[in-house]
Amino acid sequence: MKFSWEFNLMKGKNPQHTAAFLNGYDERNFESEEIAARESGQNSVDAGRDIDQKTTELVFQEISLNKEKKDEFLKLINFDLSMRPRVNDFGNEKIEFKKSLDSVFGDDDMKLLLIRDYGTCGLGGNWQEYEREDHFGRLVLALNLDDKARGDSNSGGSFGLGKTAYAKSSQVNTVFYHSVFKGTERSNGANRRLMGTGIYPSHNHENKKYGGFAYIGESIGENEVKPFENKAAEDLWDQINSLCSTDISRKSNEYGTDILILMSSLNLGKIRESIENYYFPAILQKKLTVRFIDNSGEQFFPNIRDREDLDQFVRLYEQAVNGKEIKEKEPRIKFIPYDDPPVPLSPIRPKYPEIAQEAGIEGTVVVQVFVDDRGRVKDTVILKGIPNTGLDESAAAAIRSVRFRPAKQRERAVGVWISIPVNF
């Protein structure tokens, strides 16, 4: 078996091109790592909800292929024969994508990012249909679905434009999806699938106009492919596995999905920070476990309790979950003598909230701040604020983001409360 490619032509009824996908996904200015973390986390948590496994596992793993292994991989997926002839079709307006393609065919190693989940339903259903239980079709093949696959207990997550997060995280906009799931009548007995997708700039090639979407799978006709299934999918994934320096195989009883991003541009540390930001409740409740594996094979995990900026949110969340009344310890603020006050090591630069700026609201917010003996801001209280404008929150956030030289009493660092005015 070998991979074949299908490129969508801009002709016939309802032709589709990729411009909206490549340019219009992120209206909220999230970083790529945030988008990938949000999409991966949400899809995995949804896909693991209400099935036998109580905890969903999510793994982000870096993989590097040297030139020899990279060339074998590109030959296996037929990337060379399918994309090399198109390199010059991406003109000056798509110069960055063209540079990335040139890099693929060069002597550099290839960086891959593998996103895996376990304890989920996988991507089952009918791959040619897009009902709520057709998880493979909805994630890998469907365009412009903006609802959630929440029709049954084996939910497959949110499959709208979010799928673009994976393609945009690849410098060559190419992603492979491999999944193991329970075979059903709707999946025609299939229990494993493998397919690749590309979301490339639209282009002209050999006097034909292409919209930029590509699908990489088993040939079923001229310029038409389908996912590899069952033994064929397993054999091809095993061939990809053989090129990697670490084992990425998946047994037939390990339900879940593997998303392999080619030439990943994502930073593993930033993904971890985003996972901590958005999924600390699921992690604390042990509904989700997350591992990160770098190129060297070293594993690391979320450090939620070591995040000073998350401390108050974690504390309030745990109090709410445990049904405890949320109240401050008394006394909260007390005078601690010092000889030298804390000094910020960088300027305190608050963001001016848009709502306040448009309304022309100005003034000074006075924040009482506790700076510990290591120069870290551990608590903030608004002494004099401008409520319901966002200015109080912005001032406190700006102060919390700054490290201080700690206060000193008799040449010894001490934690103290100080008042800091923030002008808008």
Write the layout of secondary structure elements.
Blueprint lengths: L3 E6 L9 H5 L8 H17 L7 E10 L1 H10 L2 H5 L11 H10 L5 E9 L16 H7 L6 E2 L7 E2 L5 H5 L5 E7 L11 E8 L3 E3 L2 E14 L2 E3 L1 E2 H14 L12 E7 L5 H17 L3 E6 L5 E2 L10 H11 L21 E2 L9 H6 L4 E8 L5 E8 L6 H10 L3 E2 L1 E3 L2 E3 L1 E8 L1
Parallel strand pairs: 2-13
Antiparallel strand pairs: 1-9, 2-3, 3-12, 4-5, 6-7, 6-12, 7-9, 7-11, 8-9, 9-10, 13-14, 15-18, 16-17, 16-21, 19-20
Helix pairs in contact: 2-9
Structural class: alpha+beta
Rg (C-alpha, Å): 26 Å
Strand content: 25-35%
> Count the strands?
21
Distance between the termini: 65 Å
Q: Residue share in helices?
A: 25-40%
Q: Note the main sheet.
A: 12 strands, mixed
Number of helices: 12
What sort of overall outline do the alpha carbons produce when their principal axes are compared? elongated
Low-confidence regions: 148-161
The average pLDDT is 85
Keywords, separated by commas or semicolons:
elongated, 3-stranded antiparallel β-sheet, 12-stranded mixed β-sheet, single chain, 424 residues, alpha+beta
What's this entry about, in short?
The protein is an alpha+beta fold and 424 residues long.
Please give a structural write-up.
- The chain has helices spanning 19-23, 32-48, 67-76, 79-83, 95-104, 135-141, 164-168, 230-243, 268-284, 311-321, 354-359, 391-400, and strands at residues 4-9, 56-65, 110-118, 148-149, 157-158, 174-180, 192-199, 203-205, 208-221, 224-226, 228-229, 256-262, 288-293, 299-300, 343-344, 364-371, 377-384, 404-405, 407-409, 412-414, 416-423.
- The protein is α+β, with helices and mostly antiparallel strands and 424 residues long.
- Strands 1, 2, 3, 6, 7, 8, 9, 10, 11, 12, 13 and 14 form a twelve-stranded mixed β-sheet that branches. It has a three-stranded antiparallel β-sheet with strand order 17-16-21, with helices on one face.
- The radius of gyration is 26 Å and the shape is elongated.
- The model is unreliable at 148-161 (pLDDT under 50).
